[in-house]
Amino acid sequence: MRRLYVPIGLAFASLAAAGQLTDFRPSPIESPHGAVSVVEFSTPLVVLEPGALAHHLDQMMANYRFAEPVWVIGYKTEILDAQGKPPRENYLCHTFFGDQHVTQRQELDMRAVYSDSFTPEMRLPQGFGVRLTPDDNLHWMPMFNNRDDRPVRVRMKVEITLIREKDLKKPLQPLYSTLQSVVIPHLFFVPPGHHERQATFQLPFDAKIHFLGTHIHPHGSSIELFNVSRGERVWKGLRKTDNAGRMVGMDVYSSVEGYTVRAGETFRVTSVYNNPTRDQIDAMAGVFVFYSRR
Ligand SMILES: [Cu+2]
Fold first, then answer.
1. Ligand 1 centroid to residue 188 C-alpha, Å
2. Domain co-membership, 191 together with 165
């Protein structure tokens, strides 16, 4: 049986009001584009019931506004247990932070960043950023999974790396993003064995892809982006495993030069799962595409 999340009290609901992001601290990262700052926020501890999988519950989300225009260049999320330590199991499904509510849609031209359990941190290639201003009502959506057979208490810590527009020494090129999933709704189940899913989409404008990352669940093997119009592979992200064969990460594509997209080209996203268990397993598979418009 799949159960929903049970937040502790109404702590999460209090986050629903738009919070101002004003606490810019110096980052140790250096950039020729200007002084780099970091902004952090965190959720309260929440209880994840056993079997809880990605759900988009209103009380889990929060709205924010930056006090001034900023260029986001990096994003990181971390799950901590009640003692403030990273738990052994993997409870992060995925998160979004950006100018749109990313639920069961596939928008183009989002100004959003993401993380998931196999890409807990992303950094855009040098010279690029996602511009956000005080006019943007920013939406933050954290999602957890609990595949254990007992409840756990965890919280999520978020770190946004950015350059304040007033600190820019050299211009950054704006990036836009889209999440292209192999299926909508995003959550599906994979039977034992090898399992592939595909979906196609078009980009109706000239663009250059500068960053690709994935959202995937345990036992996912790869996600590929293929340019159908040109009959060529754009990129294939493979899972990374540790010495014990446990999945610990996914590749990302990051390029200053970029991959050129011509308006109207069709792309195919293909995900591969290899389910070694005897039961169906939960899955999601999508590619997060960051591009510049030309
Ligand atoms: Cu997920």
1. 10
2. no
Distance 185 CA to ligand 1 centre (A): 11
Buried b (16+ CB within 10 A) or exposed e, 93-112: bbbbbbbbbbeeeeebebbb
Span 105-154, pLDDT tens digits: 678 899 999 999 999 999 999 999 999 999 999 998 888 888 888 988 88
Q: Where in the sequence is the domain holding 270, given as residue range(s)?
A: 176-293
CA of residue 133 to ligand 1 center, whole Å? 28
Distance 126 CA to ligand 1 centre (A): 28
pTM for this structure? 0.90
**What is the whole-number distance in angstroms between the Cα of residue 244 and the centre of ligand 1?**
23
Counted domains in the chain: 2
Is 52 a member of any domain? yes
Specify which residues 178 forms β-bridges with: 289
Residues 194 and 120 in one domain: no
Shared-domain flag, residues 233 and 289: yes
- Supply the pLDDT for residue 142: 84
How many whole angstroms separate alpha carbon 177 and alpha carbon 171?
19
CA distance 275 to 257: 36
Tokens of 18: 């738009």
- The model's pLDDT over 95-117, given as tens digits with 9 standing for 90+, comes to 999 998 766 567 889 999 999 99
Q: What six digits make up the tokens of 192?
A: 């034992």
